[in-house]
Amino acid sequence: MLPGFYNPAATVWYEDRYAVSLNAGVMAWAIEALLTVYDETKTPGYLDAAEVMADYILENYRANDPLGGFTGGEEGWEGQTEKLTYKSTEHNIDLISAYMHLYRIWKETQPQEAEKYRTAAREARAFVLAMYDNGCFYTGTGTDGITINRENKPLDTNTWAILTLTGDHEADGRWNAEEVYSFIERTFRVGEGMDYNQDRDGKIWHEGTAQLAVAAALLGKTAEYERLMRYLNDAAEDDGSICSANLDGLTTGFESLIAVEGGGTKAIPWVYDHRVSLASTVWLAFAQLNVNPYFVNNETVAFHDNALKLYPNPADGECTLAGLDADDTVNLYDLNGRQYLSHRASGETETVDTSRLQAGIYLVNVSKNKNGATHMLKMLVRH
After folding, report:
1. Sign of the C-alpha dihedral, residues 157, 161, 164, 170?
2. Model confidence over 167-201: pLDDT tens digits?
């Protein structure tokens, strides 16, 4: 059940209005998730669903003003939504990746469709670059879509810009990764980690700290990556999860609108507490695996050896892993973390028995014992 509250007098469950709203950045991440599964399985439904969402954003949130880009989405309950007219740098970063992913899927077979998505990615990129100023990517604009919000400076617009624009040659000369990294260090550093924004109130945002670890690895800052990972791994729970913040009450400088009993909304401070968080845990996993989730860089800048192949996929009775080294460790898990096998590879290929697996999605993790540093992850689908 979505978050909200129950009104016993009206016998109605009021869902949280934000949880049922449409957020352009969240939709972009969903598009990427669907396209990632499509890349692995070639099941058309995942691509179809991603395109429906991508086209909806194009039709409804595309800005028509000098800064361009895409607006925030729409907020409210079904039938009562209000258009969000601000523009978020974070959202537009997400959309660069999502639209470029669609472009590369279609560029060979349907160039006209591909060009539509590349144009959208360029519009999102142009807005993001317009938010750049002396090493800082500002959070976005006010409700007019033009006035830049220079007051509250969040970490993630800067870490995500590094992850998305590094290796994107159309952005060359219009920003500087080292300047951004230096700005992050000056502005957000709190002890061994990073704050959410520039107030540096003594609390550490684990999601953002993991984002910076991925950015450090991407930029070749090995010592900094290892230092951040020592802190994050120490802060993680025994089951591998990690809390949003090291202490309760991490401020963000933003507010959230919540529904109130009797109708209407009120604004409350948006804070993070010392509670286990899905987002922080996923970013910790990205950092541990040295994976940049933004698609733009996947063809130009990679952390891991993309020669690893898994075929056939979807698998039936068995599948083959190719591109291994002898002594690599091969692990197979379901999405609940249950481990089905773990063994050392004996050569360049390895056969994985899938005949006893139920139909579903599994993760194949390969640890590269040759250098002790690289991990690879592939998705296996069982018929």
Report:
1. positive
2. 888 899 999 999 999 999 999 999 999 999 999 99
What would the pLDDT profile of 264-277 be if each residue is shown by its tens digit? 778 889 999 999 99
Q: Residue 335: helix, strand or coil by DSSP?
A: coil
Give the start-end residues of each E strand in 214-317.
Answer: 250-259, 265-272, 309-311
pLDDT number for residue 302: 34
Angle between helices 206-218 and 177-188 (to 10 degrees): 150
What is the DSSP track for 21-52?
SEEHHHHHHHHHHHHHHHHHH--HHHHHHHHH
Residues with Cβ within 8 Å of residue 320, at least 6 apart in sequence: 309, 310, 311, 349, 350, 351, 352
Report the candidate in 374, 372, 370, 371 with the shortest Cα–Cα distance to residue 326.
370
- Tokens linked to 313: 């996929």
Q: Report whether 62 contacts 123 (CB < 8 A).
A: yes
217-253: per-residue pLDDT in tens?
Answer: 999 999 999 999 999 999 999 888 999 999 999 999 9
Task: Supply the Cα-derived Rg of the chain in whole angstroms.
Answer: 22
CA distance 8 to 110: 54
Q: CB–CB of 138/148 below 8 Å?
A: yes
Looking from the CA of 283 toward its CB, the CA atoms found within 13 Å total 24
Amino acid 38 reads Y
**Is-above-0.85 flag for pTM?**
no
Helix (H) or strand (E) holding 95: helix 89-106
CA-CA distances (angstroms) from residue 116 to 36, 57, 285, 304?
Answer: 20, 13, 33, 30
Question: What is the CA 164 to chain-centroid distance, rounded?
Answer: 11
